[in-house]
Amino acid sequence: MHKLRNYTLSALTFVALFISLNVFGQEMPKTEPDLPKNWHQMDLKTDGFYGISLNQAYLFLKGKKSKTVIVTTIDSGIDTLQKDLASILWVNPKKNDIYAGDVHGWDFLGGKDGKVDYTETTEEVRQYYKLKDKFANTTTAPAGLEKEYALWQSVKAIYDTSLNKAQAEVKDLTMEVNVLSATNHYIKRELKLQSDQTFTKEDLDRITTTNDTVSQSKTVWESVFTQVGENTNNAKVLKDLTEYYAKENNTINPDLDVRARIVGDDPDVNDGKPYGNNILKSPDASHGTGVAGLIGAVRNNGYGIDGVADNVRIMSIKAVPNGDEYDKDIANAIHFAVDHGAEVINMSFGKKISPHKDWVDEAFKYAASHDVLLVMASGNESQDVDAKPEFPNENYLDGSKTDNVINVGASGPKPDSTLAADFSNYGKNSVDVFAPGVKVTSIDMDAEFNTADGTSFSAPIVSGIAALCLEYYPKLSARQVKEAILESATPVTGIMVNKPGTKGEKVDFTTLSKTGGIVNAYNALLIASKMKGERK
Predict the structure, then answer these.
(1) Could you read off the pLDDT of 454-512 as tens digits, one per residue?
(2) pLDDT of 395
(3) How far is Cα 120 from Cα 324, in angstroms, rounded to an integer?
(4) Taking a C-beta distance cutoff of 8 angstroms, is the pair 241, 252 a contact?
(5) Could you tell me whether strands 449-452 and 440-443 are parallel, antiparallel, or unpaired per DSSP bridges?
(6) How far apart are CA 207 and CA 230, in angstroms?
(7) For every residue of 466-530, which 3-state class applies, written as one string?
(8) Is 55 helix (H, G, I), strand (E, B) or coil?
(9) How many CB atoms lie within 10 A of CB 311?
(10) Paired sense of beta strands 496-498 and 312-318, if any
């Protein structure tokens, strides 16, 4: 799934599995028990889970004063009414801002009349259709167009792979959606639910019938809930599945005019003119809501989850659709965040092609010049990003690098062969550190909760640690916060893990990132406390 660097669709994987086994009439495979919903914050020695030792971090901070830190999430939007977030949302203090009506952030995918371009194609699809009329029937580079032709060749190779994958998945998904829809119908009828009512794993316990069809449907949904996590319901599972279907189908039959119809700008012209609207909640805002919750959901309020940082204001910028983001939007989102006081920017997204990388590079440099830390998710393609880079990244087109970016892979809960998440991207030179990203629970839209996999969840955990460091040690520069976080990740030696994306290949965990370790909030704060701040 390449919508964002986000949840991997565990439900989708499992549905494919039970269909391939012709599940009706067969015993379902056993699954692992659910993890504690806060395992990512736990301590390996004390609790037995490879979390970030957050309780130890707060014991270390006890009695110390903090200052408020602004953290920006460039993501899919946010539910501004979510109880765990409403009181910590950033409010724009500028009275004469060019982004008229801006309150808690901005939506660079917005248009007139409150419309939002939240369903997009991938970048390779957009670029393929943009270039194919010029080069599809050409076998050599036309004079003077050598650079553009080389781009075409790269785009076509990626497009062909994406198209083949989408065609295969849409074929499978048709059956999978049908199976879940049918079993959903039988369960709701047995529970006597109305069409708009949902059911959870606990509701399944009320089913005692011996009817084969209902019993088998119950088994299907029990297993799906176990795989996805208990903090979900049938409607959310079906929504995720159908959204993924729509996204893959959009690769096959793309709507290439949706941007022009809704936003009305030219994504290939970055002229500084304002565009978008201030509507942050749209149907795809679940991802951004969950990301924000992991960073700073109100702590100790008896509701939802506890965020990593205890004194932040979340600035939400919507720039990531169900599909690939536009370089123009990312560049402008970074500028918006920096200009409005952000000290940490979380970026849980990514793509395979960046046609305007120079714009994004300039924005990265702008953030660096204003001492703003950028935290990125490495991606969920199980690939070595040293060999196959994802965009954006810290490597500038001019050959230089920046020291204000942290690239994060996803780790699991136990110090065994599963410590590196199977879906996580990795890279000894490109990925800085790993952080929890398997079955992580966060808040969701409409007072809901969600348990999911993805480097999209690993990155905000690191952003939360960064914010915590800046809250209590505000003189630290972005470079120093990065240094403290990377040094906190003691190399995990002596553990051979499953190499992401392979079947049975084992590698030393330390070979998968620069640090070879997993972030630790307590260690990061301990290191930060001993630094002499560089911030002016």
Answers:
(1) 999 999 999 999 999 999 999 999 999 999 999 999 999 999 999 999 998 999 999 99
(2) 95
(3) 7
(4) no
(5) antiparallel
(6) 17
(7) HHHHHHHCCCCCHHHHHHHHHHHCCECCCCEEECCCCCCCEEEHHHCCCCCEECCHHHHHHHHHC
(8) helix
(9) 17
(10) unpaired
- φ and ψ at 377, to 5 degrees? -80, 140
Rounded Cα–Cα distance for residues 435 and 427 (Å) = 14
Alpha carbon of 452 to those of 349, 382, 435: distances in Å? 16, 16, 14
Q: What SS3 string covers 260-295?
A: HHHCCCCCCCCCCCCCCECCCCCCCCHHHHHHHHHH
Each residue's pLDDT tens digit, 345-378 = 999 999 999 999 999 999 999 999 999 999 999 9
Distance CA 494, CA 335 (A): 43
> Taking the model in full, what pTM does it have?
0.91
Alpha-carbon span 162 to 165, nearest angstrom: 5
What pLDDT was estimated at residue 230?
62
Alpha-carbon separation of residue 87 from 21, 104, 310, 314, 442 (angstroms): 48, 11, 12, 10, 17
Which secondary structure element, helix H or strand E, spans residue 149, and what is its range?
helix 146-190
User: For the chain, which residues score pLDDT lower than 50?
Assistant: 1-32
191 — alpha (psi -120 to 50), left (phi > 0) or beta?
alpha
| Residue 506 to residues 412, 496, 510, Cα–Cα distance (Å) | 16, 6, 12
Q: Which tokens belong to 215?
A: 């019993």
Are 316 and 288 contacting, i.e. CB atoms less than 8 angstroms apart? Answer: yes
pLDDT of residue 10: 42
State residue 25's pLDDT score: 35
Q: What is the dihedral of CA 482, 440, 53, 510, to 10 degrees?
A: -60
**Where does residue 414 rank: exposed (0-12), middle (13-18), buried (19+ CB within 10 A)?**
middle
**Local structure of residue 418 (DSSP, 8 states):** T
Q: How far apart are CA 280 and CA 99, in angstroms?
A: 14
